[in-house]
């Protein structure tokens, strides 16, 4: 069974972090879209502007971070960490009267009403944060290989 498994396991954490960053970014894109719709339909309120700006920042950070992480850029890792940390901070700290500034509400109810879905989205942000800071992601970004791995054809020096 071991002969069929890839020896380069480190790329999985970086790719997983990028995919989770995209999924988290989609969640905040829906929040930003809801705030934009509320701005278009209702009387402009400060919470709508704050919501568009906050969620737009998270979308840009997570999407750009995911793309740059897949391109093996360290800035991508930093952006995913910052975006996931900000998303987690908002999820934990935005309660009470400030919640409508960060999460869109329709008729006084949040867009996501299921506790399971909320927990799943929180877990995705935690997983994106953890996967982006683990050592194997760093090794993959730096292009390190294990001692038993051969370099790819384009990475081989002449005379290999």
UniProtKB/TrEMBL annotation:
Alphabetical keyword list: Membrane, Transmembrane, Transmembrane helix
Domain of life: Bacteria
Transmembrane segment boundaries: 48-71, 78-96, 116-134
The protein's name: Uncharacterized protein
Organism: Amycolatopsis thailandensis
